[in-house]
Amino acid sequence: xxxxxxxADVVLAIVRRLPPSARRRSRLVCRLWHDVVTHRTxxxxxxxxxxxxxxxxxxxxxxxxxxxxxxxxxxxxxPRKGLALVGTSNGILCAVTLANPVTGETMxxxxxxxxxxxxxxxxxxGYKVRWAKAYGIGCHPVTGEYKVVHVPCxxxxxxxxxxxxVLTVGGKEKNPTWRESPVSIPGGAKCELAAGIVTVDGxxxxxxxxxxxxxxxxxxLAAERVAPTTVPLPAARSGGYYRLAEVRGRxxxxxxxxxxxxxxxxxxxxxxxxxxxxxxxxxxxxxxFVLAQRGRxxxxxxxxxxxxxGGIWRPRCEFDGVVRVDWRDEGxxxxxxxxxIFAFC
Length: 345
Known about the structure:
By secondary structure, the chain is mostly beta strands. Among the domains are: 30 residues, no CATH class; 150 residues, no CATH class. It has three helices and 30 strands. Helix 1 crosses helix 3. The longest helix is centred in the N-terminal third of the chain and has 10 residues. This is F-box domain-containing protein. InterPro entries: F-box-assoc_dom_typ3 (IPR013187), F-box-assoc_interact_dom (IPR017451), F-box-like_dom_sf (IPR036047), F-box_dom (IPR001810), SCF_F-box_component (IPR050796).
């Protein structure tokens, strides 16, 4: 469809008459429809809250970092202590089981019999990787299907992988089973699971070393096709540490102090902002605020610069126009505790 023939306001009037499921599918019509549905419809603009997950406790709490007086509220107790939370999607929590903490509904996730072999330490770091690091969860914005993704990985060598494993849940199948999605990376790859597994806009992403350079590998949740990006990850400072994240609804990369975003064509990384404090990963954007971590147990919010089309963050502007959060910036306390922070809609 040629975008010139229909103004955005007319498209908005059309899609508002559609039911939510059809509205999501209409994003496939063309780029104009995609942008209108994504940025101008209420269900796509819901503001996520921060879910506070404390594995050593049974409490699950949420807090709205954008409220005038942020205060954590206990949502529901988790089934048992010591659960490793894989991720969240549209209010669904994925751990050993899928759980809706609002209704209390749960659904067991069948285990992969070979998952234990992927648990170990990253070489030369002493960083112990739990089994949960090899999993991710996402909901495709068009089909509405929830999919749990398992990424085979080797930490200490390059390996040839034939497939990633996908489990569709919440659909018509009463007893869902894992299936394989073929992978073809000539020469193999070494997974970098310390960078995390992130689902953004209908695809699950992780990092891998391919041919001597770090790249993003992505699984399209609708077509279940796997492909690496052609552009390498930006070089990280601080001993090569980096984490994948969601930034402004796009795939991001935190290298400290730079935060990068990948363009829509997946061909170029650009600097979104510079943050000299640790941030809550993989999700640190909450409305007008960025959530930063001080020490190991305190989380503070910093407001975005208002009126700036780039949506970058306060308070100090550099010569290149990129705003950064300095290590001296105090911010406003949101919560205290040894939490893992996830987005919760």
